[in-house]
């Protein structure tokens, strides 16, 4: 049985045909053991890959050469790159199911057409960030507000190569959730705990906390 039903597949195919402009490159990392949702995540990606000839999907086993190249230490992991294989900073850790499935779809479209919903003022301020920034957005698939928080992190990464935006499925990675005391989602952890923000907030709020974290 497919992960995406026929009606949804047709809607997504039409969206991709209408919105996608350039090819999108996806690296998927998996493991045969100790990964409850790797197989399900792979099936989702395979089905999406079949809906557009502009999607280029490459699969990797955890521990191969690209694991170190991209700094992947947990699976399932999804990241977008450019055509030359350079990391875009847009990462997913955990199965993109529930509300986060739409985040994956929107991410594919945004990576293809280069469009985001960030204001010009925010984009200009992001250009001034010249230090590395890690945004880890902890989510659960049933959280209706989480996609907004993930989208902010991913779009910031798209506009500045110094920024990495990660969706982290809190239940799949309990050690990481415990490390950052994740008791509610969405929770955005900035630079490994230098700053944090609970809830889906405007991009300006996250930007201000990024600035504080690197001062």
CATH class of the largest domain: Alpha Beta
What oligomeric state best describes the polypeptide chains here? single chain
Strand content: 15-25%
* H and E order: HEHEHEEHHEHEHEEH
Number of strands: 8
CATH fold name of the largest domain = Glutaredoxin
Helix content: 40-55%
Q: Using the 3D structure, state the CATH architecture of the largest domain.
A: 3-Layer(aba) Sandwich
Radius of gyration: 16 Å
Structure description:
The mean pLDDT is 97. This protein has 8 helices and 8 strands; from the N terminus they run H-E-H-E-H-E-E-H-H-E-H-E-H-E-E-H. The protein is an alpha/beta fold. Strand 1, helix 2 (38-49) and strand 2 form a beta-alpha-beta unit. It has 2 domains: 6-113, Glutaredoxin, CATH 3.40.30.10; 120-214, 3-Layer(aba) Sandwich (Glutaredoxin). The protein starts with 5 loop residues before the first helix and ends with a helix. Strands 2-1-3-4-6-5-7-8 form an 8-stranded mixed beta sheet.
Could you list some keywords that capture this structure?
alpha/beta, 215 residues, 2 domains, Glutaredoxin
Give the SSE map.
Layout: H1 6-19, E1 24-30, H2 38-49, E2 55-61, H3 65-70, E3 77-81, E4 87-93, H4 99-113, H5 120-126, E5 133-139, H6 146-159, E6 163-169, H7 174-179, E7 187-190, E8 195-198, H8 203-214
Parallel strand pairs: 1-2, 4-6, 5-6
Antiparallel strand pairs: 1-3, 3-4, 5-7, 7-8
Helix pairs in contact: 1-4, 4-6
In short:
By secondary structure, the chain is α/β, with parallel strands linked by helices.
């Amino acid at each position: 049985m497919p992960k995406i039903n026929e009606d949804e597949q047709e809607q997504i195919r039409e969206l991709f045909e209408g919105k996608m402009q350039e090819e999108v490159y996806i690296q998927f990392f998996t493991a045969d053991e100790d990964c409850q949702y790797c197989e399900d995540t792979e099936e989702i990606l395979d089905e999406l890959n079949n809906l557009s000839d502009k999607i280029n999907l490459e699969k990797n086993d955890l521990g191969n050469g690209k694991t170190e190249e991209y700094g992947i230490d947990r699976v399932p992991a999804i990241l977008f790159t450019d055509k030359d294989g350079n990391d875009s900073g847009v990462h997913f850790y955990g199965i993109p199911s529930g509300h986060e499935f739409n985040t994956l779809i929107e991410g594919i479209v945004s990576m293809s057409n280069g469009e985001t919903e960030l204001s010009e003022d925010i984009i200009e301020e992001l250009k001034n960030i010249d230090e590395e920034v890690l945004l880890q957005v902890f989510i659960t698939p049933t959280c209706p507000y989480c996609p907004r928080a993930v989208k902010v992190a991913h779009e910031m990464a798209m506009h500045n190569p110094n920024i990495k935006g990660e969706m982290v499925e809190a239940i799949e990675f309990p050690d990481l959730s415990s490390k950052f005391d994740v008791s509610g989602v969405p929770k955005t952890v900035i630079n490994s705990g230098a700053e944090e923000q609970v809830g889906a907030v405007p991009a300006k709020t996250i930007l201000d906390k990024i600035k504080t974290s690197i001062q």
